[in-house]
Amino acid sequence: GVEVGPQPQGVARADVLDKMRKIVKHGLDFVQLFNEGKEFPPCTIEVFKIMEKVDYPRNKNGEIIAIIHPKLQDQDWQPLKNGDPLFLTLDGEVIPYQGNSTVYPTFINEAAYYEKKQAFVKTEKIKLTAKHLRSSVS
């Protein structure tokens, strides 16, 4: 599957559609070249591995008591370090990120995830290495 975004629910955006078309075309080009026997050299790529889902701070009744801090809003895939602003309470208190390592939040404040009790997803940046690849079919 391919998910391209961010894009609000029920909205069709030309720029996002164009990105999706390019991704699908690259995927199909790869399949064609692989089937033709092209050898692909070893490579390394940075990816983001999901660590955990993070909920909004809530009171004892389960009601949200803080929102995403303005400095975190729209910062998907950007580094979040210990002490960086994370949430802002309705009283104006900043709740900082408290973690042992830098993380890369994504799906920040997505409307579709409110009901799932998810303020964002913490990811870590890792490197994946692939050996050379070639079809065994001649």
From TrEMBL:
It holds the Pfam family AstE_AspA_hybrid. InterPro entries: AspA/AstE_fam, Aste_AspA_hybrid_dom. Residues 44-125 form the AstE/AspA barrel-sandwich hybrid domain. One of its GO terms (molecular function) is hydrolase activity, acting on carbon-nitrogen (but not peptide) bonds, in linear amides. Gene3D superfamilies: Zn peptidases. It comes from the Eukaryota. GO terms for cellular component: cytosol. This is ACY2 Aspartoacylase. It comes from Origma solitaria.
